[in-house]
Amino acid sequence: MTRQALTLVSHLLCPYVQRAAIALNEKDVPFERIVIDLANKPQWFLDISPLGKVPLLKVQRPDGSEAVLFESNVICEYLEETQPGARLHPEDPLTRAEHRAWMEFGSAILADLWGYETTQDAAVFEQKRLALIAKFERVEAVLGEGPYFAGRSFSLVDAVFAPVLRYFEVFDAISDSHLFDALPKVDAWRKALAARPSVRNAVVPEYPQHLMEFLKRHQAHLLTLAA
After folding, report:
1. Which of 123, 132, 151, 177 has the fewest CB atoms within 10 Å, measured from its CB?
2. Are 188 and 146 in contact, with CB atoms under 8 Å apart?
3. Which pTM value belongs to this model?
4. Contact 188/179 with Cβ under 8 angstroms?
5. Among this protein's residues, is 14 annotated catalytic?
6. Burial of 123 (0-12, 13-18, 19+ CB in 10 A)
7. Crossing angle for the helix pair 93-118 and 72-82, nearest 10 degrees?
8. The one catalytic residue among 6, 8, 9, 14
9. Residue 160: is it exposed, middle or buried by C-beta count within 10 angstroms (0-12/13-18/19+)?
10. In angstroms, rounded to a whole number, what is the distance separating the alpha carbons of residues 69 and 19?
11. How far is residue 135's CA from residue 110's CA, in Å, rounded to a whole number?
């Protein structure tokens, strides 16, 4: 069977893009990657992106025409349904639904993380730090023996949380957030995810530098905590 031509329209830092890239890497599916600047969106991108956001997955149909998928979870679900390679969802329908719910929870964490990384206000920063701890405590309560969310099998939940947890490789090098001090399972999980080739290869090697530049542009309070 001839594989479909897939193109992932990306941004260098976007955690939602990373989800799709991780899923593609896990399934060993070849794809082209196009990186755009979200601060200067090209017209061709605006023409095909209903929400003006990444990721987009451009899929070539058998007749040569092109479909464009948007929203990261939709893209990941499409890849799971259509591509060969490792299965990233559980077979059991109830367990699969639980996984989808935790994928949404990962998106809720990103909402607090945005405030944590961009605020210039110390009080807001601390509020977001505590909100992140509270959410990760929820995750701690459902994690098992690991190394991944569902044990030995890597899943789409892992693909969602890996980009979230990757942020703290940079953030905690600036100033230890102590987010994971009382969360040994989450801490072990994030280390296992960081070592996974699909996760490492979902970003460019210069990712830490790009994230530092992002923090500087936002004059983030986080940078004032550097030792």
Report:
1. 123
2. yes
3. 0.95
4. no
5. yes
6. exposed
7. 150
8. 14
9. buried
10. 14
11. 11
Separation between Cα atoms, residue 189 and residue 96, nearest integer Å: 20
Q: Given the structure tokens 């959410």, which residue do they identify? A: 135
Tokens 């994928």 correspond to: 103
pLDDT digits (tens, 9 = 90+) for 13-72: 999 999 999 999 999 999 999 999 999 999 999 999 999 999 999 999 989 899 999 999
